[in-house]
């Protein structure tokens, strides 16, 4: 009986993975996820979720950090894109220790104790341990958007895929928040 259940579970996983690969191949040329919304007539932008930005630092251990109190001498600039623009609405870092081109590189330098930065919660939780990730006050969020071609309407199957993707990413935000901040005292994402 156990072997039968295990076999059914494995078959379900294989079918699920196969279906996911098939769907991503089918829709990949027409869809993209970005933290950099595009304002062009031939591209439609759909907001999926507001993604919280977090303060990342290997040496900081005191909960939420006020953006005005971040040490500018240790600041690792996350690059010249929408993340930096969102940060600039709250604080101008005129001096930086390092300038990087990707969120991933910022997290790698933070992991090695080279400084501090701000990044999106997905990048932070993927690459850093929870004690290096802290809420920012006042909170800052950046829009995660789905881009698609305006000249091609979505098929019903493609629309279901988009709906699933939106729902899954929103759920993942909640799961990350609960994993990083189980007592909700340091919550960085809406719990609703």
Provide a concise account of the structure shown:
The chain has helices at 2-27, 82-88, 103-111, 121-127, 156-180, and strands at 31-34, 43-57, 65-66, 76-77, 98-99, 116-120, 133-137, 141-149.
Element layout with pairings:
Blueprint: H1 2-27, E1 31-34, E2 43-57, E3 65-66, E4 76-77, H2 82-88, E5 98-99, H3 103-111, E6 116-120, H4 121-127, E7 133-137, E8 141-149, H5 156-180
Parallel strand pairs: 3-7, 4-5
Antiparallel strand pairs: 1-8, 2-6, 2-7, 2-8
Task: Describe the overall structure.
With 192 residues, the chain is α/β, with parallel strands linked by helices. It is 39% helix and 23% strand. Strands 1, 2, 3, 6, 7 and 8 form a six-stranded mixed beta sheet that branches. A two-stranded parallel sheet has the order 4-5. Mean pLDDT is 76; it is low at 1-20.
**Percent of residues in helices:** 25-40%
Q: How many strands in all?
A: 8
What percent of residues are in strands?
15-25%
Number of helices: 5
CATH topology: D-Maltodextrin-Binding Protein, domain 2
Integer tally of domains? 1
Task: Please mark out the parts with pLDDT under 50 across 5 or more consecutive residues, or reply none.
Answer: 1-20
What CATH architecture would you give? 3-Layer(aba) Sandwich
How far the N terminus sits from the C terminus, by CA atoms, comes to: 40 Å
Q: State the order of secondary-structure elements, H for helix, E for strand.
A: HEEEEHEHEHEEH
Instruction: Tell me the structural class.
Output: alpha/beta
CATH hierarchy class name = Alpha Beta
């Amino acid at each position: 009986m156990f072997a039968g259940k295990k076999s059914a579970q494995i078959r379900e996983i294989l079918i699920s993975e196969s279906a996911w690969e098939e769907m991503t191949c089918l829709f990949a040329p027409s869809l993209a996820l970005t933290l950099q919304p595009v304002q062009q007539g031939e591209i439609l932008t759909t907001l999926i979720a507001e993604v919280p930005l977090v303060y990342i630092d290997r040496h900081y251990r005191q909960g939420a950090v006020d953006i005005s109190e971040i040490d500018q001498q240790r600041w690792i600039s996350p690059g010249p894109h929408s993340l930096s623009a969102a940060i600039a609405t709250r604080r101008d870092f005129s001096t930086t220790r390092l300038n990087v081109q990707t969120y991933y590189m910022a997290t790698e330098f933070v992991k090695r104790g080279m400084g501090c930065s701000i990044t999106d919660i997905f990048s932070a939780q993927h690459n850093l341990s929870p004690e290096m990730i802290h809420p920012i006050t006042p909170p800052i969020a950046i829009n995660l958007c789905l881009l698609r071609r305006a000249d091609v309407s979505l098929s019903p199957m493609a629309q279901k895929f988009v709906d699933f993707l939106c729902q899954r990413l929103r759920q993942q935000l909640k799961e990350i928040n609960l994993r990083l901040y189980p007592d909700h005292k340091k919550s960085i994402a809406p719990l609703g």
